[in-house]
Amino acid sequence: MQPPKGEPMVRRSLAVLAALSIAASAAVAKGTNRAYVSSEKDDAITIIDIRTLAVVGVIKTCGRPRHLQFTADNTRLLAACGDSGKADVIDVASGKSVGSIPLGDDPEAFDLSPDGKTLYVSREEDAELAAIDTASGKVLRRVKVGAEPEGVKVSPDGKRVYVASEVANMVHVVDAQSGEVLKNVPVGKRPRRFAITPDGKELWVTSELAANVSVVSTADYKVLATISFAPKGIRQEDITPIGVAMTKDGKGAFVSLGRANHVAFVDVASRKPTHYVLVGKRAWNVALTKDESKLLVVNGLSDDMTVVDVKEGRPTKTVPVGRVPYMVVIDD
């Protein structure tokens, strides 16, 4: 990883990184009731008011933004940009960039440790997980994993980091302290994203080319179950699960099905889909509002976001966003 050029930029970046660490212990800021959608082709983030479902702004950012995540206090939004090799740090209140964090070549997804002191990012070209100290900006360690790593998820206690390798068809379980790979868990073909049940006992892994979700025990890392999807009238090869979200009580899950243009509602206890909702083209990632009344679904090939009424299980609105939208996060 190359350091930022210029001493002023170094000081600026390190100040931002230190703020991220401090933010983890701060009180959570009042939500803005806005959703943020990254746009790969526009190098921008679209802002939507989730009360009116109207577009209220656009933030220009670095090249090819994909993964988005808030800091612990929701005052900063981080956008990982694949073409820029960094994360843009955006002040939520002003909607302006306040710095950047170098992430290395072609960063994919990232996650922050519970205390905000470490950022874990998957680097596709290098087939590694990098741990970055948020106080200094230094790379603490590099962990070799399978080819083309994507999804990254830190366990609630911060002791484990889960990394999905799209080529190896594995989930790598990494010890956060030592960087040791503790376990390689075979899952479905081309694993992409994760969710952890609220009780912390299960890790759900979407597999894009297997049309399923693997349910992995976080106690012994055995695959407990495989959830398959079959929306009526959709060819099997077009069922490509990507995003996954869970309700706070752990009873329900939602899985976007990519080229199938649907979202699956899943009963967690029985591990079975209950029904499917038609959304836009190439359903990528999903997010639930805090009251869990709305599910927001980003559609990568129709350049829009579908709003789904969770209780009624039906789409209620389509909101145009930037070109090739990838991810949505909500500040409410």
Strands of the widest sheet, in order across it, are 3-2-1-28
Helix/strand order: HEEEEEEEEEEEEEEEEEEEEEEEEEEEE
Which percent range describes the beta-strand content?
over 45%
Low confidence ranges: 1-11, 21-28
Secondary structure: helix percent:
under 10%
Biggest β-sheet strands, sense, barrel: 4 strands, antiparallel
Distance between the termini: 35 Å
Give the overall pLDDT as a whole number. Answer: 92
Structural class: mainly beta
- The count of helical stretches stands at 1
The radius of gyration computed from the alpha-carbon positions, rounded to a whole number of angstroms, is: 19 Å
Strand count = 28
The geometry reads as globular
Structure characterization notes:
By secondary structure, the protein is mostly beta strands. The protein is 5% helix and 51% strand. It is built from 1 helix and 28 strands. The chain has one helix spanning 7-23, and strands spanning 34-39, 44-49, 54-60, 65-70, 76-81, 86-91, 96-102, 107-112, 118-123, 128-133, 139-144, 149-154, 160-165, 170-175, 181-186, 191-196, 202-207, 212-217, 223-228, 244-246, 252-256, 262-267, 272-278, 283-288, 294-299, 304-309, 314-320, 325-331. The strands form 7 sheets. A 4-stranded antiparallel β-sheet has the order 3-2-1-28, with no helix packed on it. Strands 4-5-6-7 form a 4-stranded antiparallel β-sheet. A hairpin with a 5-residue loop joins strand 12 and strand 13 (160-165).
